[in-house]
Fold this protein.
Amino acid sequence: MIVTGRACDEETAVEQSMKETAVEVRAVYRTFEAEVAPVRALRGADLTVTAGEFVAVMGPSGCGKSTLLNLIAGLDVPDEGEVFVAGESLRGKDANDLARMRRTHIGIVFQFFNLLEGMTVQENVVMPALIAGVKRKAAETRARDLLDLLGLPDKAKAAPTTLSGGQRQRLAIARALANRPTVLLADEPTGALDSDGGDEILELFRRLHDDSGQTIVLITHDQPVADAASRLVRMRDGRVVDDGSAGATGIAVSVNASE
Ligand SMILES: Nc1ncnc2c1ncn2[C@@H]1O[C@H](COP(=O)(O)OP(=O)(O)OP(=O)(O)O)[C@@H](O)[C@H]1O
Ligand SMILES: [Mg+2]
């Protein structure tokens, strides 16, 4: 009986640990053809993100951060290596499969917002859910909840062009959260904002992580933004050189390069 119980426990633990891995990047390589010489953007990058983590990725310009994020999002495919999202490999998926994966698992926020300018604030948040097949009423309810959560309830009918930079980025985050993604990816989300706008967005990411357990992978050049994360990953020359996991965190935080 005891043995059976233990076996059961072990099985559950294994199952849980599989479920709990939101993103896994294994020995990924990506080279871009360029005029002068090929650019080896990623050269064996590894990264594992557990569900509920808030991971900041830092590293010098050109070290492969955005390339890595694009591979996780299925916006690009690696030359070698493998990417898993929510336990599922992206290898061999065609463009339609990758788009479906993105709708289900990925929310993306970029530096320059990428909003649908011709639509209202609310429609910007409703649209991704409609595309994913959610009924309009449910999509609208979800959009209103998100606009409340992100402090934009009075802006639902406004045009995105009338919003401040910080408000535009909050809208971009609301849109990225519309389909309750497994992981929220952000590529320098505070990069185009003044310090007030940046603080506002930072506070928001912190709240999404602390209150909702949202898994977040965020690229940044700003130390205060990285400090808000629960783990700091450092990249250099196309690799993860410090993944900030158990035992390495102290080192990661103390290496304070000017990036
Ligand atoms: N589509 C592409 N075609 C050619 N080269 C590319 C392409 N995308 C990225 N690169 C190159 O790959 C390298 C890594 O680029 P990436 O955008 O991942 O860097 P990054 O770490 O995000 O830099 P930054 O901090 O400046 O945003 C760079 O040398 C870049 O010029
Ligand atoms: Mg980049």
Observations:
- Confidence is low (pLDDT under 50) at residues 1-8, 247-259.
- The pocket of adenosine-5'-triphosphate (ligand 1) is lined by residues 32, 34, 39, 41, 59, 61-67 (CB under 6 Å).
- The CA atoms of residues 35 and 41 lie 15 Å apart.
